[in-house]
Amino acid sequence: MSSPAKHNCSVCSLKKICLPTGVGKDELERLEALVQDTKVHHTSDEVIRQESPFRNLYAVKSGMYKSVKLNDLGEERVVGFHLPGDIIGLDAIYTKTYSSSLVALTTSVLCQFNYDQLVLLSAKMPTLQAQLMRLSSKEINIANAFQNAQTAEQKLAGFIHNLSARNAERGFSSTQLILSMSRQDIASHIGMAPETISRILKQFQSNDILIINKREMKILDPARLLISTGCAHA
Amino acid sequence: MSSPAKHNCSVCSLKKICLPTGVGKDELERLEALVQDTKVHHTSDEVIRQESPFRNLYAVKSGMYKSVKLNDLGEERVVGFHLPGDIIGLDAIYTKTYSSSLVALTTSVLCQFNYDQLVLLSAKMPTLQAQLMRLSSKEINIANAFQNAQTAEQKLAGFIHNLSARNAERGFSSTQLILSMSRQDIASHIGMAPETISRILKQFQSNDILIINKREMKILDPARLLISTGCAHA
DNA sequence: CGTTCCGTTGAATGGGATCAACGATTGTGG
DNA sequence: CCACAATCGTTGATCCCATTCAACGGAACG
């Protein structure tokens, strides 16, 4: 299911958005020393089990993961997708148990930080403390992001736009996206039927807003995609 | 619009859920000294203007507030309601500007904390730092709470159940609720038409799940209300 | 006393879910 | 290596839930 791998925050391309952001060079070594494990996972590997006790925060080093929440009725819901640089587990600080399971969507690598040690270190490193609060704050914004969408078109456009923006934030292409997740995962995440995803993607294609081939998407008209989200005017 | 009022965390009934949680007695005085202002607001007062620069966190001392977000198309959306003890502004730490406006729903009181000073203080007070992270983490959970609901019935039941739980958390009644907000505000918050709110409340009443008179609600059958949320089985 | 907003009710419409079927892809085991 | 199963993605037809439009009584307010 997983195998060890080398880690080194100093040379990691994601340090600009990940935990080390704002942390000084010398201090970085102390943060690095705290990374207990860096593990490789493969598609469908379950990394975190929902309800298990909270001990670690995780940072995505490469690949993609999804968070899946199971309710008392046995219904599954994808609560989020995690890209490289994302911090996972911030919501569990309060609840003390992980609120969802974490599953790899493709071959992916995860860095692991023990939270108690992180807290001890951040007490001595104001920059780390500040970054922890910033990331936690960012997570609140992410969670609130999808509240605007009313129609299925707006929901899906918002999802794609968001994925595009997050890609850009990481220095990846904002127009060339690889959807590592299935249509069902997308549907579950934004709260609609997979059939509707299909139909609206088709609609976007016939309007020349994007081209999609299997799980490779090319955004042709970012401006009209943004308008489709219902968040901006023409 | 607002007038000064006395503040004193030590004797505040909300210290068990508010910022002071976990903070020692002597340390509490230093936190108290940091409260710059405690102001009284009245219905419809705008306390925070969306997009204004982030400087302070706020804690609700009494009453109720709503957060309202305006998008580029001029559409308004209620993104949250704030009860006594709630911390407001945690999402703005990342964005550096407030992402929504804050409006009083009734005569209410707010405590104001300068964030920079709070950070300086928390560097010396691990308990305060821990509470800031806990509260931020809690906010992530709140934002994710409504993702489960599919139907209008589930959304509204979830909203009422949530309000009831938050009331209980504060030592108030979990069955006797005062809805300080309008039906339109509720509708905007959970993403449905105010007419539908009316119809489903009527349905809940004829099923003897609750009784509602103007803005006073009495929950008769919390168990069946929970089932209506679609989060639990019978 | 008129005006405005709030809350409710009725009737009609439509958007998205649901059900069903099918080809394509992936994965499995003999 | 291939037959088979299972999942994925798409398309079509139907239905139902929630929005929309419209109207009205009541309360709050100036």
From TrEMBL, chains A, B:
Q: Which UniProt keywords apply?
A: DNA-binding, Transcription, Transcription regulation
GO molecular function (one):
DNA-binding transcription factor activity
Q: Which residues form the Cyclic nucleotide-binding domain?
A: 19-109
The residue ranges of the HTH crp-type domain are 150-223
Name the GO cellular-component terms. Answer: cytosol
PROSITE patterns reported in the protein's UniProt record: CNMP_BINDING_3 (PS50042), HTH_CRP_2 (PS51063)
Under Pfam families, the record lists: cNMP_binding (PF00027), HTH_Crp_2 (PF13545)
Q: Which SMART domains match?
A: cNMP, HTH_CRP
Q: Does the keyword Signal apply?
A: no
Source domain of life is Bacteria
Q: What is this protein called?
A: Transcriptional regulator
